[in-house]
Every structure is written in C-alpha cells, then in structure tokens.
Specification:
TatA/E, 3 helices, about 85% helix, mainly alpha, transport, membrane, cell membrane, transmembrane helix, about 70 residues
C-alpha cells in the first residue's frame, strides 16, 4: 500500500521540514503563524461544540411554532 509509507515520518524528514519552514518564513514570522494556527484550531473546536446545541434549539423552537400554528 502506498498510503502506509506516508504515515511514518522520520526524524530526518521532520528536520528537513523545519529547516524549509525557517527558510521560507523566517524566525520572526513563525510564532505569529503558530498563534494563528492555534486560534484557528480553537475556533474549530468551539464551532464543533456549539453546532449540536444550536440545531437542538432550532428543532425545539420549530416544534413549538408548529404546535402554536395548529
């Protein structure tokens, strides 16, 4: 399988990736990028937590409105 080889990243590959990121973005830009990535992950997780409650509230409101209409 081709995908099984892609799942295992060794130490050498990680070092090469880190060096490339340093060369592309520079040392000063990396903390800003990581901060933005962290905020994005946090917002994504918050959005996942809020989704079921919002849809649950909408379903309850829709049922109440349909009961009032009859």
């Amino acid at each position: 399988m081709l995908t099984s080889g892609l799942l295992f990243i060794g130490t050498q590959e990680i070092i090469i990736i880190v060096i490339l990121v340093l060369l592309l973005f520079g040392g000063k830009k990396i903390p800003e990028l990581m901060r933005g990535l962290g905020r994005g992950v946090k917002e994504f997780k918050d959005g996942q937590r809020e989704e079921p409650t919002e849809s649950g509230n909408n379903n309850t409101n829709n049922k109440e409105n349909s009961n009032n209409a009859h």
